[in-house]
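INTERNAL AUDIT FORM
Audit reference: QA-55
Scope: verify that the stored structure record matches its stored sequence.
Auditor: D.O.
Record contents follow.
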Amino acid sequence: MKYTIKNIVELLDKYNVEYHCEGKTDAGFDGFCPLNRLKDNSLTWVRNADNLNVDELNQHHNLVLIAEKGASIPNASFSIFYVPNAHRTFFRIVQELFAEMDPEIKLPQIASTAVVETEKFGEALYVGHHTIIEKSVKLGNHVTILNNVTIQGNVTIGDYTTIESGTVIGACGFGHYWDEDEHPIDVPHFGGVVIGNHVKIGAGNTISRGCLADTVIEDYVKTDNLVHIAHNDYIKYGAMLTACVEISGSTTVGKNAWLAPGTAVREGIELGDDIYTGIGTVITKSQPAGKVVVGVPAKVLRDRKKDEH
């Protein structure tokens, strides 16, 4: 086997993770799997062990399970590590042991079909095929930009940030005034886009540049695929925007917010820190911090639980 119990113990010690181990101490594994697709010789994890089918797991050879501290899994013939946060611990182990399998990890290079006009970029830059990066763009260290991405205008991207394929950053936003003949005239957009460190922008996102000020995305923000962030938006630290979220212009999204798939947010409002929305929520007015908000139009349902994400 490629890895053993000893390798897991070394990593847990490295990250100062408190653990208790039960079951086989000589188990080896060379892969990983989810609970609904169990495989021999694999590492897996469970968030809630109350309904765990122990008999099914016992049928597999060399299975190692990461489970929550305080859980009880009797009659197991496989190896179990009980830890304070099984989700975090499992994926940290997988990242460490199987990094070579992660397609997101790229060696620094600029693809032959990419057009990179800027000279303002840091070390370890990766740019994929058919991506266009204009001259005024500034890129930090260890930035990964995948295929068919367009980055235009005054855009700054911080360190260790990833932009997935098909995303457009810095396009003009949707703003107009009406002339004397009631014709809609595009409002000029003089601002840019500022993206922080350790940000992940999903595939097919559109992030508009600001009109009179920058559109800002702070550190550790993560967006899923097909997210739209409009002009002058301010997305604060650690906010999570899931698939098909739409944030209209001049809106602030608070720290560590979680916006569920299909959430739509009206322009010019503020969502408080730690807000959590239900699927398809339509938010038409500002919402307080720390609440679960659902419905059309959105209403506060209850307080957000500490581990709700």
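Auditor finding: record pair retrieved intact. The chain has a mean pLDDT of 96.
Action required: none
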